C-alpha cells in the first residue's frame, strides 16, 4: 500500500482504496492510503511549524530542490506517463506529454526562485525611502482534479514552494498513483520535513479539514463550479486567500472564410482529445451557416475513424472515460440532447474492447441551440454540439452567452475578425486557428465569470497568488 507523506514520514491511513485502470477494470494500479481528518490536521501543523525556516531560508536551496524534481520527472517521463495513462485513461502520448510539462514547470519555477523582484522608490516625504517586497503567504492547501493528475499539481506545488510557502496537497481520489509518484520524488529532493505534505483521501474529510483550518492561509483549487462554491463558502468567511479554477463551456467559432481542414482539426483536438475531459475543451462549435453543413459533415467523418481503445495501446487516439460515474453522466447528457431536439450525427456509443473499460465513441450533436442544456452545462466528456450562426456578430454573441469564460477560439483567415474576436470575447484565454485546449507552461492560465476566481495560475503571474506584498518605509 502506498502511504501518505506527513512531516517527512510515510504514514499509513485509516483505510486504503484501490486505483482502477479505466481501460481495464480488472487491473488494479495499486492501493493507496486514505487519510482522515486527524492525519490531515497533523500535516497542516507540520507545514505551519516548518514555514518560518523555509520562508526565510536559502533561495538557492529552493531553486536546487525544484530543479532536481524537474530533472527526475523528465528522466522518468515514459515510465510516469504510462502510469498516468493507466490510471486516468488519456492516451500514452498524452500521458508522457503531461509528465514532460510537469518537469518543465518545476524547472521554470526553479529559475523563478532567484528572479523574485522588489522595488525601491522615493517617498513623497523628503529623506524617506520606500521598499516594496514580496513574502510567502504561509501554508497553502492544494486541491487538484483527476483529469490532469500530474500537471495541475505541478503548476500549483512548484510556485508554492518556489516562493517560500509550505504545502498540504490533496489530490483527487480517482488518481492517487500520479500524485504519490510526484510526492515520492519531492520527498527526495532535499526539502525539509513538513514543507511538503501529501494527504490522500475523500474531499468530505481531507479536503474539508484543509478548508476549515485557520492554520491554512491560502487554498488553490481546481475542480467543478459546484465544489468551487463550497470551497468559497467554507474558507471565504475566515478570509483565506483563494484561487479557484473551475468549469468551462468553451466556444470554437468557425467563420465562412476559415480553412475547413484547419477548423476540423481544431475541433477534433480541442473537443475530443483527452476524451474531452478538459476544462478547456471546445464543447460548443459555433459555425457560420453558409459553411455549417460542410463543416459538420467533415467533422463527423473525421470522428468516425478515430481509434477508441486502451490508453496504453499504440495508435489509440481516444482513451476511455475515467470511471463509471463519469460515463453515466456522459450518457445522461446524450439522452438530454436527444430529448432537447438536437441531432446526434455520430458517436455516443458504449463500445467493448479487449478488456472491460469505460469506452464511449466521440459524439457530435448538430443543430443545437445555445439555450439547450447540452450547450450550457459542462459535460466533461467526448461530446460536443454544433450551433449555426447567421454571421460573425451573431457567432460572437452566442460565444459570450454563457456563465463561463475560460477559453475560446476562432477559425478565420480574416485579420479584422480575428482582432475583433480577441478583444471582445469574454474569456481569459483565446486562440486563433488553434484548438481551445492546449496552453504553454510559462504563460498565465485562467478565466472569467464562473470559470475562475482569484489570481492567474502558471508563469510569472503565479507570484500574485503565492506571495503577499509588503511596503516598508525607511528613514536612513
From TrEMBL:
Residues 1-14 have a biased composition (Polar residues). Transmembrane segments: none annotated. Its EC number is 1.2.1.3. The active site is at residue 245. Residues 16-471 form the Aldehyde dehydrogenase domain. It is an enzyme of class 1 (oxidoreductase). InterPro entries: Ald_DH/histidinol_DH, Ald_DH_C, Ald_DH_CS_CYS, Ald_DH_CS_GLU, Ald_DH_N, Aldehyde_DH_dom. Residues 1-21 are annotated as: Disordered. Pfam families: Aldedh. The keyword Oxidoreductase applies. PROSITE patterns: ALDEHYDE_DEHYDR_CYS, ALDEHYDE_DEHYDR_GLU. It catalyses: an aldehyde + NAD(+) + H2O = a carboxylate + NADH + 2 H(+). It comes from the Bacteria. The keyword Translocase does not apply. PANTHER family: ALDEHYDE DEHYDROGENASE, ALDEHYDE DEHYDROGENASE-RELATED. Belongs to the aldehyde dehydrogenase family. This is aldehyde dehydrogenase (NAD(+)).
